[in-house]
Design goal:
This protein has 8 helices and 9 strands. By secondary structure, it is α/β, with parallel strands linked by helices. Strands 3-2-1-4-5-6-9 form a 7-stranded parallel β-sheet, sandwiched between helices. A two-stranded parallel ribbon has the order 7-8. The chain has one domain (13-184, 227-245): 3-Layer(aba) Sandwich (Rossmann fold). 39% of the residues lie in helices and 16% in strands. The chain has helices spanning 22-33, 66-73, 76-79, 103-130, 152-171, 190-197, 202-212, 221-232, and strands spanning 13-17, 37-42, 56-60, 84-88, 134-139, 177-184, 187-188, 219-220, 243-246. The longest helix has 28 residues, at 103-130. The protein is globular, with a radius of gyration of 19 Å.
Amino acid sequence: MTNASFTVSLPDTVIVSGASSGLGRALCRLLVKAGVATIGVDIAKAADDLAGVAGYRHVTGDVSDEQTWAAATSSPEATGAATIGLVTAAAILDVGDIVDLDKAVFERTLRVNVVGTGLAMKAVLPLMIERGGGAVVSIASIDATFAEQQLATYAASKGAVRQLARTVAMDHARDNIRVNVLSPGPMRAGLFERHLQSANDPEKFLATRAQRQPGGEILSADDVAQAAMFLLSPAANAINGAEVMADGGLTTSFDFRTGAEGASV
């Protein structure tokens, strides 16, 4: 007996912001491996495992600068593609209480996380419209809905990203463009790692957070990237303007009992 399989097609070209670290980097690796022409956009240089790899082009620039997006969308991989996808994963996270808010930090977070997402859509959607449609995946966070201590600025920005994406989905549904929100929970990638290192006891922080997960461990960036791949594919044609929680079930329940509490499970 042979194993059954399920395969999906992907856009000819996918543009990914935040490509040099975390989820964006993981997604770029998966896309290139799948044979998709991938354009990574990041203020940092290309990641070592992507630099010079066939099928990958890197655009170095600030996602809140329109010139960065002009460079990405004018590349041969974008202009020559029959189908195009977009994933907006660029984000920054700063840990702190609102009482200690630094206005410059707050404005920078909104500029990168929200304005950068909007400018990406502004630049790429016209290419999709010319081609009769396309798929956009905007990376938000479970913090767009659920509060998390010390992350007021980040959570506010991700709430804005979610509503930006959902509104654009409605504005361009008749253009055959799907825009969905992918909201990761904790994953062993850049933003979570920085939050982890800011803890007084990183080892205890990690163990506690892992125990909160129904599966007992923090997801990998590849786990979440696979969900983004699905949303980019025609297999997700029935999904538009939706938010997919890629959190391993963390937000499904108000409390996950591990047995350590003395309660039945």
